[in-house]
Structure formats: structure tokens, C-alpha cells
Amino acid sequence: MNIVVQKYGGSSIGSTEKIKKVADKIIRTKKAGKDVVVIVSAMGKNTDELVNLAKSISGKPDPREMDVLLTTGEQVSISLLSMALIEKGYKAISFTGSQLNIQTTSSHQKARIMDIDVTKVTEALKEGKIVVVAGFQGVTEDNDFTTLGRGGSDTSAVALAAKLEGTCEIYTDVDGIYAMDPRRLKNAKKIPRISYDEMMEMASNGAGVMHYRAVELAHKYDIPLYVASTFSDEPGTIIDNGGGKTMEEAVVTGMASSLEDIQITVLNLPSPTKSLYRLFGQLGEKGINVDMISQMLTEDNLMHVSFTAPKDDLWLVEKVLREWQQQDPTIQWEINEDIAKISAVGLGMRSHAGVAAKVFELMSDNNIEVKMVTTSEIRITWVVVREKEQQVIDLIGHHFGLEMSL
Ligand code: ADP
Ligand code: ASP
Ligand code: MG
């Protein structure tokens, strides 16, 4: 079979007019002789609306019920898209995650796909049907509904492409991957081809254009991803393993920024090493994903330790710290929600030193305090006060050549 998996995001199917246009695009591919499997997200901002509905009932909605609610969004769009295809004279059939037995782990709202039973998909393809599958959702062993985390339809698409041994195309409201979100950096350069490693670093540090786990999965199964616009024929971006010349030329390929983290500073910790072990052990047990860490020893041999964690986990972090304070009332902490985490990413950093030095020089020349720093082989991430975020994006974009030359 010559299978192509195409994924259409929420903004591409935000209205019934758009759904009809997407149907035309799918039909063009079908007419070109491909077997088409389509993954769709919920229409427009529907998932946000469902989240808001839940929050108007409960500050902390029950995770299982939340997934029952959120999976409805994709059920609406798969049925409407299939109807549009049928209306245009093509055979089509929609499937929810549970109908295809998209088996996931049981962690609601951040479930991971374990396996997919594609029998129904291949049977339908053999009957000449276009298959439309709900993204973002799956089921546990006990048949409870799960979702894969916001933006997770990309991951559904890659998982299906892997299972069906097909190619994978991600259609969205932007015509490819840019060196920085084009909404944030005016004149950002489009990247014709980017490596899995760089895209994973960008996606996990705020580039919401791709779900991190989709890129991870594509890398694992060595599936090239083609990211392009739903409504234009502009050439998009290929995400693959390739070490093309374009990637070698630049030291910094792209950047990303995230406002989704908080900085926590715990003051006056006694016996530093033991305290660190205990603090991060307890945070880990609660499933809190601690990212950046820095520490400072005081003259009295007490320690201040700062770390970042996802904003959504603030209540859990506070719970851990309050429990600890009951045993040791001298411990105090400060929470800073007013931060931005900026990352510069590039394979070229492996072979070129000096990116960190240049970043610090730029920050220093512009009187921007760097609160925390972390690096990987191909990334540097640093935290600044939120009000400086745009200035930092512009500075880095300009100095590392991430803008289009006019
Ligand atoms: P979809 O609904 O199709 O999944 P998303 O909103 O998840 O779309 O992703 C597309 C958006 O990602 C774009 O509108 C763009 O603003 C944003 N984005 C963030 N970083 C990048 C980047 N590096 N390149 C392109 N788009 C980016
Ligand atoms: N509808 C889901 C969301 O808004 C999944 C997705 O768009 O990929 O997060
Ligand atoms: Mg998305």
C-alpha cells in the first residue's frame, strides 16, 4: 500500500467552510493514487473552550472526567470531515481512539501511546475509503478515555504513520518551521530542512508548532515529517535525520521561548547535599518535572537552591515545601512566576564554541539579568524577567541571523 498520513490542526478546520477546503485537499491526494489516512484535531479553539467549561465547574477537574470531556472535540471534527468527503462523492469513514483501540498508558491528560490496532484502518483503505481518525486521544487497558497532552494530535499522526509504514504530513496554519515563531520574531527565516534533534529541542522549549513527542517518535522510527500550510502550496519544512548543508551553515538554527515555567528558590537549606537529595527526591515522587537547577552556598554553610518547574505544578511544589516546613520551620521559599525561558538551538553548537559567551555579552550589553542557565550539546537556555522576553527574542534573532535578509 502507498499510505500517506495527513494531519490537520485545529485552526485548519476552524469552520465548516475550512473543513470543506480540507476535504478538497485530501481528495487531491487520493486522486494522485495514494491511500489517505487523515488525523484531525478539534475544530478551532474547541479544546480551549472545553477546558474553560470544566474550570467553571471545578478548579481542579477530575482527570478521568476531563479526558471524557476533551475527547469530544475530535469526535465532532472527524464526523464532519468524513461527511464533507462523502458529500463530495468519496468513500470515507471516521474512527475515534477507542474504536481503533489506540492503547495508551493510564496517565490522564499526558498519556503515551503504546500500540494501535490498525486492522480496521487497512480494511477500510482496501475498500477504497479515506480514513479519518481522531487525534489526541486513546484508551487505557480498562477502556477509559485518555488524551496525549495539548497539541498531541501530531503524535497520533506519527504513531499511525509508524504503524502503517506510511509517510507523514503535518498541515497547519503556518507554511513550515521558522527559526522562531513568526508571530514573535518579525521576518523570521523559514527553515527548509531541520534535524529531529534540533526540532525536539525547539519543541520541548516552547516552539508549539510541533508536539515534542511526535518528533521523538518520528526520530525513533526514522519517519521524515513534512510540515506545511493547509491552505497554500508554499514548500514546507522537512524534519529528518539529514545533515544537509543548510544545517551546517548556521551555529544557531532556531530559538524558542516559553512562559510556562515558574522559578522556585528555597532558602537556608541545611546540610546541602542531603537536602538536595531529599528535595528533588520528593519533587520527583510527585511527578514534578524539574528543569533548570542552580545553587548557592551562604557564608554560614546554608544553601539557597533555585529551580524551574511547569506553572501547572505550582500547587504540587508548594505542597512538598509546606510538608517539609512542618518538620523544619527555618526553611523559606520564594516563587517567581514572572519569568521567560529562552532557548537557542543549533547542531552547529557541537563544533563552534562561543554561543554562550555571545548570549551573555548581549544580555550584559543590554542590562538584562540572566537568572538561570542550562545547556545541552546543541542548546543553551536561560531565564530572564518576563518583561524582557520580546527584547531578548529580537536581540538573539538579529545577532544569530534568524531573520530573513531583505
Ligand atoms: P495546529 O492547530 O495546526 O496544531 P499549532 O497552533 O499547534 O497549530 O501550531 C502552529 C503555530 O505554531 C503557528 O501559528 C505559530 O505561531 C506557532 N509556532 C511556534 N513556533 C514556531 C516555529 N518555530 N515555526 C513555525 N510556527 C511556530
Ligand atoms: N485538540 C487538542 C489541543 O487543542 C489536540 C491538538 O490540537 O493537537 O490540544
Ligand atoms: Mg498543534
From TrEMBL:
Residues 342-400 form the Aspartokinase ACT domain. It is an enzyme of class 2 (transferase). One of its GO terms (cellular component) is cytosol. GO terms for molecular function: aspartate kinase activity; ATP binding. Its EC number is 2.7.2.4. Keywords: Amino-acid biosynthesis, ATP-binding, Diaminopimelate biosynthesis, Kinase, Lysine biosynthesis, Nucleotide-binding, Transferase. Pathway: Amino-acid biosynthesis; L-lysine biosynthesis via DAP pathway; (S)-tetrahydrodipicolinate from L-aspartate: step 1/4; Amino-acid biosynthesis; L-threonine biosynthesis; L-threonine from L-aspartate: step 1/5; Amino-acid biosynthesis; L-methionine biosynthesis via de novo pathway; L-homoserine from L-aspartate: step 1/3. CDD domains: AAK_AKii-LysC-BS, ACT_AK-LysC-DapG-like_1, ACT_AKii-LysC-BS-like_2. InterPro entries: AceGlu_kinase-like_sf, ACT-like_dom_sf, ACT_Aspartokinase, AKii-LysC-BS, Asp/Glu/Uridylate_kinase, Asp_kin_monofn, Asp_kinase, Aspartate_kinase_CS. Substrate binds at residues 47, 74. It holds the Pfam family AA_kinase. GO terms for biological process: diaminopimelate biosynthetic process; homoserine biosynthetic process; lysine biosynthetic process via diaminopimelate; threonine biosynthetic process. Gene3D superfamilies: Acetylglutamate kinase-like, VC0802-like. Residues 2-229 form the Aspartate/glutamate/uridylate kinase domain. Catalyzes the phosphorylation of the beta-carboxyl group of aspartic acid with ATP to yield 4-phospho-L-aspartate, which is involved in the branched biosynthetic pathway leading to the biosynthesis of amino acids threonine, isoleucine and methionine. Belongs to the aspartokinase family. This is Aspartokinase. It comes from Alkaliphilus metalliredigens (strain QYMF).
